Amino acid sequence: MDAVLTALGTMAAVVAAGWVLGRRGTLGERGPAVLARVVFAVATPCLLLVTVAHADLHLVLSRAAMVTAISTAIVAITTIAALRWVWHRSVDDVVIGTLASSYVNAGNLGLPLAVYLLGSPVAIVPPLLFQLLVLAPIAFTVLDRRSQPREVSGTPVADRPGRGTSTPRRSPSGMSVILRTLSNPIIVGALTGLVLAALPWHLPEVVFEPFRLLGAAAAPMALLTFGLSLAVPRSSAERAPRSDLVLVVVLRSAVHPALAAAVGSALGLSGRSLLAVVAISALPTAQNVLVYALQYRRGQALARDAGLITTLLAVPVLLIITAVFG
To answer: pTM score, two decimals?
Structure first.
């Protein structure tokens, strides 16, 4: 458990640094939004390109990958059903809520966990690829379809505060949605990495070094963004609905690990293989979900609170999982 405690402690220190910066106003009012855009448009795409380009794509068809896909899909569908058809949330809020319940912190917590607890970083590859190649493209397709920025008095609507506008939203064409989705930096980075991984030859490592250097900034800047967001005073209107938050936290910290254990056992996994899929499914909500929420200006409170609570719960949950399956 030293790896888990070290990883969580490191994350907490960087988040605390972001909180101090936010309380002091060091980066100004636009600090969180600017950092979020840098993470979204530059650092994360570079990280994904390098990570996916060096991944073993045969892991996509492994039993561990099947466990990840099945359990994550059940969690996502459950979230969609509850948020959309029970509590009638907007489509954008449903997307962010679904990401908060199903998108795990595979990078800055999952990698050290896989290395020090499970002995190899290979275990984190299936959930990482599933998130990058399935969850993210679907989410961004929906969000991009519904966020069509228009210039009004020189300022894009997407950059203006507030939700309301007197101008009706035009329905985008199918081709425009495809083009916007394929131009999304996150998807571009993941797809480029996928193409490079599928090539029968490998590019020289020197080609990846600039992307690796920029990608190394993704995790710390996402955590700083999280800390900055925690420092902003919140009104009651900016708090996540309690029912939504409870749903996301329960699914993320309890239901998903239980599903992974059940599905993994049914597919014949045991020992360290079963421990790997269950432990990874118990990881907290990825801080990138908050970055996405800030980028699209929807569900920020839910993404922020879910990230905080599930991270605090990660230590006891992982201790229990290790005791049961270790």
So the answer is: 0.75
The one-letter amino acid code at 14 reads V
Phi then psi for 166, rounded to 5 degrees?
-85, -10
pLDDT digits (tens, 9 = 90+) for 76-95: 999 999 999 999 999 999 99
Long-range contacts of 121-125 (CB under 8 A, 24+ apart): 122/56, 122/59, 123/64, 123/276, 123/277, 123/280, 124/280, 125/55, 125/56, 125/59
**Residue 283 to residues 100, 105, 118, 267: CA-CA distances in angstroms?**
11, 6, 14, 21
pLDDT in tens, 148-157: 543 333 334 3
- Which of 111, 112, 308, 161 minimizes the C-alpha distance to 227? 308
In 3D space, the residue among 240, 256, 234, 238 whose CA is nearest the CA of residue 314 turns out to be: 256
> 322 Cβ partners below 8 Å, 6+ apart?
1, 117, 275, 279
Q: Is the pLDDT of residue 109 over 50?
A: yes
Q: Length of the chain in residues, anyone?
A: 326
Please tell me the distance from the alpha carbon of residue 150 to that of residue 94, in angstroms, as a whole number: 23
- Per-residue 3-state assignment (H helix, E strand, C coil) for the chain: CHHHHHHHHHHHHHHHHHHHHHHHCCCCCCHHHHHHHHHHHHHHHHHHHHHHHCCCHHHHHCHHHHHHHHHHHHHHHHHHHHHHHHCCCCHHHHHHHHHHHHCECHHHHHHHHHHHCCCCHHHHHHHHHHHHHHHHHHHHHHHHHHCCCCEECCEEHHHCCCCCCCCCCCCCCHHHHHHHHHCCHHHHHHHHHHHHHHCCCCCCHHHHHHHHHHHCCHHHHHHHHHHHHHHCCCCHHHCCCHHHHHHHHHHHHHHHHHHHHHHHHHCCCCHHHHHHHHHHHCCCECCHHHHHHHHHCCCHHHHHHHHHHHHHHHHHHHHHHHHHHC
Spatial neighbors of 41 by CB under 8 A, at least 6 apart, are: 185
Neighbours of 259 (CB within 10 A): 21
